[in-house]
Each structure stands twice: as C-alpha cells, then as structure tokens.
Amino acid sequence: MRVVGMVAWACIWLLLLQLAGASHVVYDENLEVEAAAAAVPPSIVDPLLRTGYHFQPRKNWINDPNAPLYYKGWYHIFYQYNPKGAVWGNIVWGHSVSRDLINWVALKPAIEPSIPSDKYGCWSGSATTLPDGTPAIMYTGVNRPDVNYQVQNIAYPRNKSDPLLREWVKPSHNPIIVPKAGVNATQFRDPTTAWRHADGGGHWRLLIGSLEGAARGVAYVYRSRDFKRWTRVRRPLHSAATGMWECPDFYPLSTAGRRMGVETSSSSAAAAGSRRRQANKYVLKNSLDLRRYDYYTIGTYDPAAERYVPDDPAGDERHLRYDYGNFYASKTFYDPAKRRRILWGWANESDTAADDVAKGWAGIQAIPRTVWLDPSGKQLLQWPIEEVEALRGKSVTLKNRVIKPGQHVEVTGIQTAQADVEVSFEVPSLAGAEALDDPALAGDAQRLCGARGAAVEGGVGPFGLWVLASANREERTAVFFRVFRPARGGGKPVVLMCTDPCKSSLDPNLYQPTFAGFVDTDISNGKISLRSLIDRSVVESFGAGGKTCILSRVYPSLAIGKNARLYVFNNGKADVKVSSLTAWEMKKPLMNGA
C-alpha cells in the first residue's frame, strides 16, 4: 500500500482460491500461473475493467474486510491483503481511512506477522471500542504451520491521540485465547466484536467460529472481565449442521422500524439497559466455509444462559443471505456518527488466477450498506450508504414507458459502464404468471434461475435491465424479475430476482454462474423496484427496496468504457410499464491513490 499525504487528502477532501477459500487456504503463485498470465486476453487486462468506485487497493490481492470502525472523525477499514502479488499469500492487514466511506487514503499495513503467536499468519478479526474510547483489535494468528494451529491475539493503537491509528502494538500477554481440550485448533478463528450486556454480570463476551465433528458449525462464547483473561462458556451460543462457521458476526438491531443501528460495546449499565429495551432482536451471521456464502438468522439472545435462539426453527436450513451472489466474509460495525449499522463484504474475482496475475489485482469490497430490520421482523433490509449518491453526475430519466412482450428499450444520453440506476416497474396484470410446479425448483432460486434464465420466455417476466451490454447485445448481463403463481393455488405470487451473466462476455474462460434469490414482497399491485450499481466489472443490485441483493462479477470484452450500453427489456408475455427510471453516471472517488 502507498502512503498518501494528508495535504493531498485535504485538497480533495474465484474460483481458484476463488473456489478454494477466502482467508485460510494457501495458493501457490507458481511459474505455471505466471506463464499462463502471458496468454491472458487483452480485454481482461484493460484498465477500464478495474472498478471505479468500489473499494480496492492500488494493486494486488485483497479478501476479508476486517475490523471496520469509526474513530475521532475517521472511518477505518482493514482488510486481508497480499502486498506481494495478486493471489492469496503473504497476508497482512491492509489499512485505509476515509471521512465519508467513499474517498479512501491508503496507509501502511496495520498488522503483520511479528510475534510467535502470529508468525505464520495474521488472519481475520474485529474491533471493539473499550470504555475509555480506545479501539482494540482481536484477530486470529497461526503459530504452528505444520498443523495450522490457530490462536487469538489482540493489538492496541500505539498512539490513541492519532485519529488515523497508523501504528499498532501487540502486548506481551498474547495470545489471549488458545484452543483447549475439545476445540478443533485448526478450525478456530475470526473473533467478533466484543459486547457487554446489563444482565451479564459485567463480563465482556465475544464469539469465535469453529467446527465440531465433521460438519457442525459452532459459535463459541468467550467471557472476560479485564479483556486479558478469557474463558470459554461451556455451551456454544448456537450451532448447526452447516459445516465450518467462518467470520461470525453477532449484533442487535432496533425493532423501532427505523434505519437505526445499536451500539454493542458501550460499558454503562444504563446504555445496556436501553439497548435491551430498544433492540430485542439479534442477528447471527456466519460465513459457510463449504458453500462459500454468508447466511444469517434473526432471533433472541439470553445473556444469562448465553444462548441464542432463531425465531425461525428452520432458519439454519433455509439460509437467509445478505447477498445471493458473490459476497463473502462480511463484517458489520456500528457507526456512531450517523447511528446506523454498516455492512462490508468481499467480492472475489470470477476470472482465473492467471488473469489476476496479468491484471495485477484481485478482489474488491462491495459498496458499504446500511442494514436494518424489516418491519415484519423476518428478514433484514439493505441499501447502499447514502454517501454513494454524492458520486452521481449527469442523469437521464424515463417515465411511464410501456415495454411490450419481446421488446427492449435503450437508455441513452449517459455513459453506463459506471452508473447508478433506479427503476420502478409496474405489471398491469399477473394473470399470465407461470405456475411454479416443479418441486425441485420451487425451493431453490438459483436452480430456478439457471433453468429459466433471461433468454427463456415467461408469462410475467423475465423483465429488468441489460447492463454492460455491447452495441449489438451479443454481450449483456441481465438483472431481472420473474413472477410465478404458487403451484397449488392460493397464497401470494412468488417473485424471483436473478442476475444472469451467461452472455456477459465473449471470453470463454470465465466463471459465469447465475445468481438468484426469492423476494419476499407483495406484488399483488404489480409494482416492484430495482436498483443496480454498475461499476465496470461488478454489478450490485437491490430488489424491492433492499429485500434481496445480488452482486455479480463480469468481464465484458466488448462492452467496456464508452462501448457499454444499458437497456430495459421484457421477455415475458405481459406488458411491463417502467413507471420511472433514472440513471446517473458515477464519478470516480479517491481510491487509495489509484
């Protein structure tokens, strides 16, 4: 990472690891990969495919977002970073700071292997604000490479008066948590933000993700009074037969029906009591090491029993997800400046390791999202942070435009390779919706989208956007809705949201999966909305006001820069009206000196 001077700031003011794993599997950057990089198609290394306003360092590999926090007027994001190349390895904690979560300045790495308990790895972790306002970082270290033995460490700022937190020190009492009898030491990582609760006897708690037996993911609770000596609670906070739980996250949300976050590390009993009254729902999120996605449940937390119970007894099987696309190892934090909870998540590349070496970079972070509880209490809602709207530039608008079956309409007047699009659709009649009569597809949105993608004519839909499309549309990425009627009659219509990148590029060597999720919304009035953030090689979409979110990585070979086009399409048998559509060109922020 490059250090950018404060004067400059004031003036501006995959599938391979990609399938192998996020943080914890070493990939060999060998001569074969280097040789293969020489044969990468020119379009892949085109700098216009490097994202314009999503977070990434100037070069090299990144993965998990770590320990996001707000301190003395500055937002901080740390991240797993390889300073020596564009594949996983040599991991340190990269560190960047911002005033607005959009413009970022890179600092030197914050945490690097330097003590016996992290000699062979400084892996993911979280930040906690202590009672005196000091931030503390808890992270996983590896101290025995032969067996991948994982322990937990702590680091503090060297100078608490420095708002940029440029230097961190590791006290001599590290490691602070080690796996004892009965804990799988090779699957024991990613400590959460610690919290206190009025009913908890003054103890700090945190969670560590692990694996029991062959397939049971667990979140172990550790408690401490002094933040130095930690003891494991006898039973896990929660567990499920899902495989290893990486990067756990656990936090309260207000049930007041507002986009309000709730602080978790305040030490006063009064504040804790207020939290208990205002936020009686908790979210437990885990990243599934086997399936490579994040899922969450919503439930209740009993601090006396140290137990969490999902509201939905089948929640650990149904797998509500933050994002139904390329989104992993996520981490939230409470933003005291705007009293909101913000979600970060990593999006890997879906090209090859050789492509990444040729490009010189791999991995981005999704646009930070505000997350809050849906009024139903059954799921979360997410929306891009409001600050991203400051990047909006020239715009165009469509209103009350009817798209006939089989038609498409181009949105012209702006450049759309780097854009923000908000559209409201209205379907006059749902009578022609297809029956969702295949049991194998009815409960599996991704399989349903794969079987009935954007090119398959339907009754009501598919309708939506073609983004990053070439002039003759031989390249295009579809983001769309499709409406079904329940197979046995009765009940509300079933809404599928899908991103279909099967035609996104003429390059044959790309991983191009369809991504999909069902949208729990009432479309009986025929209305539904979509927002898509388009950024050169990423499409990040939010359906029905943030009920369903899908991020997809795409690498056009033709629809690059000024050659990228945007369309509204309808491949169903029913008319679809675009009640309103506004598309903005997006300006490029300061991004770590790039």
TrEMBL record:
CDD domains: GH32_Fruct1-like. Residues 1-22 form the signal peptide. GO terms for molecular function: hydrolase activity, hydrolyzing O-glycosyl compounds. Residues 54-384 form the Glycosyl hydrolase family 32 N-terminal domain. SMART domains: Glyco_32. Pfam families: Glyco_hydro_32C (PF08244), Glyco_hydro_32N (PF00251). PROSITE patterns: GLYCOSYL_HYDROL_F32. Keywords: Glycoprotein, Glycosidase, Hydrolase, Signal. Residues 387-585 form the Glycosyl hydrolase family 32 C-terminal domain. InterPro entries: ConA-like_dom_sf, Fructan_Metab_Enzymes, Glyco_hydro_32, Glyco_hydro_32_AS, Glyco_hydro_32_C, Glyco_hydro_32_N, Glyco_hydro_beta-prop_sf. GO terms for biological process: carbohydrate metabolic process. Belongs to the glycosyl hydrolase 32 family. This is Uncharacterized protein.
